[in-house]
Structure formats: structure tokens, C-alpha cells
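go over this record:
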Amino acid sequence: MGGTRPMRIGIVGTNFVSDMFMKGAEAVPEIQASAVISGHREHAEAFAGKYGIPHVYGNLEELLDSGEIDAVYLAVPNSLHKEMALQVLKRGIPLICEKPLVPTLADARELYACAEAHHAYLHDAIVPLYTDHFQILKENLARVGKIRHVFFSFSKYSSRYDAYLAGKNPTTFRNDLCNGCWMDLGVYTIADLVGLFGKPESLCASSVMLESGVDGASAGILHYGTFDAVTMISKISTSYQNSEIHGEEGTLIIEKPSLISKVYFRGVHSDETELLTPDDANSFGDQLRDFVTNVKAGKSESSRVPHALSLAVIETLEQCRKQAGVYYPKEGKTE
């Protein structure tokens, strides 16, 4: 990778989030999707045809050996993240790994240690934390004055829940794939809260468990000493509430915590709500620009999401999940 040639990305996985990646890449000319693989070759070929990707390979080793990529975007089931990420990082190849990076803090530390040992850049793809809109949110925190209460909500009826209710086994609700509500939606609200306020002093969490062994809906209270932050998430119902940060001098209102699509401020004595963010946001594009810039500059981590922040998010998410009774294969409930 040199000169002005775009960074060639090999895409691993062809689900809907890979379509989001391609949409984000449209706004980042420094990136070019050059190859793709999937669990089913016909899916990879269809994806390549849809986006004009020149190379299709049968497995990860073929992709890594091809000489046609400069970096990898990994969008596979959560249970496969660690194993496949290690394969990429041991080659010294920069990696964007979809959220959640891995289910446990121990696994995350292993990945970052591997990345450091092989001089490979590891990007934890928690989209909202890389956005310009999140930076605007942070910059305006002081305007609310003394924070009294925080509420982050992300509940959306899953397009696959009807299939689950019909007795099918969609990946979204499979325990063996390390899925469920905390891992899919909770990672966003927890990332936003930890990104804004750091790790909580303590927390409590609960979940509505499904027979498949994953949480369909969950809630958590993160204690920050002078205020509590509440998060409510669900894949089996829908909420139309915005997220809010309440202070003695005003309130910040956040649309879509997974993207930070818009941020508003309203003072306690004001009748007007002020829009703080522009409308031309491309949240996925923001994180891809961050990735390309850092890799080309030879940096080891992002200033927006340094390793310490990524680890803090994973640790807090793991604590919420386990306190709520959500465990995955190889995890003992006596931990």
C-alpha cells in the first residue's frame, strides 16, 4: 500500500452490516473493496456482483494469501471474531472488526496483545464513538450543568424475531454464536455511556431471557456517584424514545445512539431546542476515515477510541451481561 492508491479492503462476511460498510466506503475514496468471502460462496459472488468487487475467495486463508488486500473488514458471527481476528493480526494486516469485538475482557486483551506483537492495527468498530457527532456531544456536555440523570434507549423489534417465534433458529437469537440483545444493541448504549463518562463505579443489570439462552430485552443502571445512567434495550419490542442527558442547566437529546444521528440542546428556561449537529452525517464513513488515517500514519491506535476505551466498553458490557445471567459456551456461571 503506497502512493495515492486506495487501501484495498477484503470483506469477510456478507450480511446487512457489510452493506452498511459499503455505503460508508462510498464517502471515503481512500478505501476500495477489492475482495470478499462468505460462509457460502454464492453469497460472496452475489455481494461482489452487487458492488463490483473484483475478487471472490473461498476462505480466509485464501483471502490473506491473495496479495489483493491491504486490510480486512470482519463481519461474521460474534463467536468467530476472536479466532478469525487472530488469523488476520498474526499476518500483520490491519483489521476492522465489527462490534462487539469479543464477548470478554480477557479475549479483548489477547487480541490487542497479538496486534501489538505483530505490529498490526486493530480497529474496534463501535461506530458512534468514531463519529464527528459524538465529538460534538462530548463538547456540549458542560452546557447541561451538573448532571442529574442519563437515559440511553435502543429498542427495535428484530426482523428475525417472528422466525424465532415460529420455531426457527435465526442467528440473532443463538447462544452458541454469542448473540442476544446486550451484544447487539447494548454494545452501543454502553459504549456511548463509557465514552462519555468512563467506567461506572458500580452497576446492576437484568434481562428478559429467551428459551434459546440469550436476552431478548435488557436494562442496566450504571452508577457514577452523583448521577445514574439508565440503559434500556430490546430486540423483541420497539421504543420511539430518544436518549437524554439531564442537567440542572439543560438537556442534551440524542437520536439513534448507534449512530448519534442528531444531537439537540434545550436549556431549562428556554422554549427552543437547538440542533447541534449537521444533517450530512455518514457515521460509518467517519469511522472508516479514522481507520485509514491512522493506518497510513503508522499509528497503533485511534485517538477517538484508544485501546483503553475499547477495553473499558467490553469490560462494562461483560459485567452487565453476566450480572443479568447471560452466559455463552465455555463461560461458567460461577465466575
